[in-house]
């Protein structure tokens, strides 16, 4: 079963995302991270199948982090979200096929 890595700084929102995915609907395990450094460490250890990334993290942008995660696991799947929308961020993500 797939493993999901949820990378969101806001712990309350992170827990809400865990509840959404934790219903036995095809996901086996979950990992959480509140920063880019933590996400990279967990990706190297756990090799998750999917990452849900906040675009605004305290130490790195979600776009930069997605690129780094894909270097660790080629073909890695990333789902990005943000509460702070900007057209520039959207274009940057779409240009990288995220």
Structural write-up:
The chain has 98 residues and is an alpha/beta fold. The chain has one domain: Rossmann fold, CATH 3.40.50.2300. Helices cover 43% and strands 20% of the residues. The protein has 4 helices and 4 strands; from the N terminus they run βαβαβαβα. The chain has helices at 11-21, 36-46, 62-72, 87-95; strands at residues 3-7, 29-33, 50-54, 77-81. A 4-stranded parallel beta sheet has the order 2-1-3-4, with helices on both faces. Helix 3 (62-72) links the parallel strand 3 (50-54) and strand 4. Helix 2 runs parallel beside helix 3 (62-72). The model has no long low-confidence stretch (mean pLDDT 84).
Helices and strands in order, then pairings?
Elements: E1 3-7, H1 11-21, E2 29-33, H2 36-46, E3 50-54, H3 62-72, E4 77-81, H4 87-95
Parallel strand pairs: 1-2, 1-3, 3-4
Helix pairs in contact: 2-3
CATH fold type: Rossmann fold
Helix amount, in percent? 40-55%
Tally of DSSP helical segments: 4
Radius of gyration: 13 Å
**Poorly predicted spans:** none
